[in-house]
Amino acid sequence: GAPTISIFLKPPGVIPPGGSTTICCICQCSYGSFVLYKGGRQLHTLEQSGSRVEFSISNATYKDRGPYICHYLEGGTVLARSDELEVSVEELHLPRPDLSVLPGHEVTAGADVMFRCTSTHPSTGCYLYLEGHTRAQLLSREQGDYNLSHVQKGDSGRYSCQCYTINASREWSAVSNTLDLVLR
């Protein structure tokens, strides 16, 4: 079958102006080239043997925000395209939330866990990030809790959260501490 590319930010989250992050593209590919597009415009090409390329964004500005896509080519032919990764650059005014996990960060497969993102700021919504994934999970409004039932191998990894005010001028927090969920 055709290769698939996953695209994600490392570390994930909304980036402050002047901040930095890395766009990672991972593919079970042979030897070819990766091309990074932003809003349909070609930005970078990397010749690559192996499965992973990284494109850095440093000293981010509002110009860096937008949709990014990775293409993988062999001999000029596009063999795979990633999903779209939306990069957000915003001032981070709210305090950093605290991420915790119950019953603990080491669990057995099939267990239920609950992530709790605690913000000192009232009326915020929060996102839960799992490094290596394009999409964030929206945490439930009321508690900032996210329940994960019957955890599997794919749920393990490095989690963080980030909150925003629920009002017209959406303000963002810094990204929380990270937590590693380990399956025993």
Task: Outline the structure in words.
- With 184 residues, this protein is mainly β.
- It folds into 2 domains: 5-87, Immunoglobulin-like (Sandwich); 92-183, Immunoglobulins (Immunoglobulin-like).
- It has strands spanning 5-10, 21-27, 31-38, 41-49, 52-57, 66-74, 77-81, 85-87, 92-94, 98-102, 106-107, 113-118, 124-130, 137-138, 145-148, 157-165, 172-173, 179-183.
- Strands 3, 4, 6, 7 and 8 form a 5-stranded antiparallel β-sheet that branches. It has a 5-stranded mixed β-sheet with strand order 11-18-16-13-14, with no helix packed on it. A 3-stranded antiparallel β-sheet has the order 1-2-5, with no helix packed on it.
- Strand 13 and strand 14 (137-138) form a beta hairpin.
- The radius of gyration is 18 Å and the shape is flat.
- It starts with a strand and ends with a strand.
- The model has no long low-confidence stretch (mean pLDDT 89).
Strand and helix layout:
Elements: E1 5-10, E2 21-27, E3 31-38, E4 41-49, E5 52-57, E6 66-74, E7 77-81, E8 85-87, E9 92-94, E10 98-102, E11 106-107, E12 113-118, E13 124-130, E14 137-138, E15 145-148, E16 157-165, E17 172-173, E18 179-183
Parallel strand pairs: 9-17, 11-18
Antiparallel strand pairs: 1-2, 2-5, 3-4, 3-6, 6-7, 6-8, 10-12, 12-15, 13-14, 13-16, 16-18
The CATH homologous superfamily name of the largest domain equals Immunoglobulins
Q: Say what the CATH topology of the largest domain is.
A: Immunoglobulin-like
CATH hierarchy class name of the largest domain: Mainly Beta
H and E string: EEEEEEEEEEEEEEEEEE
- Arithmetic mean pLDDT: 89
In the CATH hierarchy, what is the architecture of the largest domain at level 2?
A: Sandwich
Evaluate the radius of gyration. Answer: 18 Å
Structural class, please? mainly beta
Cα-to-Cα separation, first versus last residue? 32 Å
Number of domains: 2
Low-confidence region ranges: none
